[in-house]
Amino acid sequence: MTEYTRTATPDPALSALDRLVGTWKVGGGAEGTVTFRWMPGRHFLVQDVRLVQHGQEITGMEVIGRERPFGAEEPSADIRSRFYDAQGNTFDYVYELEGDTLIIWAGEKGSPAFYEGTFSPDGDTVSGPWTYPGGGGYESSMTRIG
Q: Which parts of 74-130 fold into alpha helices (H)?
């Protein structure tokens, strides 16, 4: 099987992020909407972002999945992402979901900058703080609208 035709069984940790699929209204330190959708094959989750934070419009997209560089036999241990915005910036994250707790690490796993949110029992709300080094951060919530 070539690199181009390789198929894999569904990744349980990545598949757990299926609960993010849909459109969400975001509130707190950033406000607007985000939409999560699977790319064909379900190896990557794509987030389309339209937010306003500190009066600045943030429009972009994020691709979430396991990295597998050309020629690599095994995918990355972490579920990683890269966010691309309309201003030409890129930001890297690591996603973890354990039970009802979603952690998004800025940069690398264990970073002092991270989001830790909890899903409501019905799965239609995720709330928690973004924490930044030096005590900064803000509360954030997402409510499913579609």
A: none
